[in-house]
């Protein structure tokens, strides 16, 4: 069912008709090609109905299933709400009657959509595990949609003292959004899931839609932390402090969901002066922004740790929005390169939402941004609670993951080492496909998809690693298996050090019996592998070049006894599983201990040899220079 939206403009002329979808949305994660595992193309979005003949993938498929149509409707509904948001911000900033008329027409039209298709109760098509929504299958999706609607209404009504009668048709939608947010939050609290990322968006929906409804009615809403949705027992501040580490990481240690909840927090704090927030909340928000600053490369790549898209235009829009909100909260931050890269990734889907946030009258928080000096970037930065470590060598940005699994969004990536240049993903975290594709989702969560240790070519049980030692220039972490965690009877340890001109990586795996022990290399660039004797050289070719020199030692730590670097074709990261890359499995069969040593250099290759002499790694350069690195005792002694 579809219907035209038509209303009178401020000059009395008929508003241009806009066809909106009069059908409930499904689950956006089903918007995926079942053959190729890529997200389907955004054909016809925003629109009223999915295109006839199915939705295309980039390889030429046309997919026309109920699940895909429902996913298309999610994306279309959200795109219409986003358009209303942009036009409302523009109208508030410029007093442009055309922008205001379009925003009002869209909001009243969306109110009619909601009244006709969602007022009847919860969406019965929701899957059993979902917290049910009304317009969509998930309450989470309802909340995200309503935040856009609420902010659009807030912007329009906020410029009309005494209320906005033209927006009265929207009041039932806003009121029901507040009611649904409160009920959904209580459900999560009762189930012991208060720290869920859903809670952040339910709080955002309750706060934003409540303020918007008050403004439409001509009331004066709360704009401070006294609002229950912000400072209450289960409000945003309580959620933030409960669901993030002291260092600022969201508890799942997932780049996507970290940004997801941070965006919800900042959207819900509109009008709240940063200086008036409790100190612990203000500091935690700064730490959350700092996590992204530390994680991002100088060229703006945000590694896709754990679940979340590797690259996606829709996600790029969210990063642009988040960067604008973060800049409004605190100046002198380092997210400019992230915003610029996201703008390029958004491509033709880019819009003006981030720019409108940056120029909103009076500022997003109703006060100037905090003046926070930029923190110096450490060569080695570790968040011990999340188990994420960022190392910076000359031209190399490395991310080492050793911490907790991350709940339902975790991957089997303990001791995984991702490698980036400023703009080149040499060996990135591969990210995740839309969840609706079960086979590829399972692969990208697997150990085989990550540059880490595997035992007997199986996936491990969920595991948490341990920080052994850390210095200003190095970090050493380990993971140990038992009957319930990782690989029973196996242990691995990884020591990564930032040296002068290179990154040193030493990995040791040990097993209680002869087993197949493997260390994987997983590039997203063209990889050249050459072996000479027991020395392996790799060249990683992208916009920047990475050089690797590697040796493997088995059991007795003597070279040349059966540690094989086996190159084979494999899928690239999760934005396109069909992109073939050269994978390397560096394997020893029937081994009880294996040590792998690598030296990585960006730009130019100067190292000619690497050896292990007892507890010392010896690195030799072409100019005759010799570096000696003392390994922590635990690396070579189980």
UniProtKB/TrEMBL annotation:
Q: Which InterPro entries match?
A: Chondroitin_lyas, Hepar_II_III_C
Does Signal count among this protein's keywords?
yes
* Locations listed in the record: Periplasm
Q: Would the keyword Oxidoreductase be found if you checked this record's keyword annotation?
A: no
Name the UniProt key words of this record, in alphabetical order: Lyase, Periplasm, Signal
What domain of life?
A: Bacteria
Q: Which residues form the Heparinase II/III-like C-terminal domain?
A: 384-547
Q: Gene3D superfamilies, per this entry?
A: 2.70.98.70, Chondroitin AC/alginate lyase
Please list the coiled coil stretches.
Answer: none
Q: Would you tell me the protein name for this molecule?
A: Heparinase II/III-like C-terminal domain-containing protein
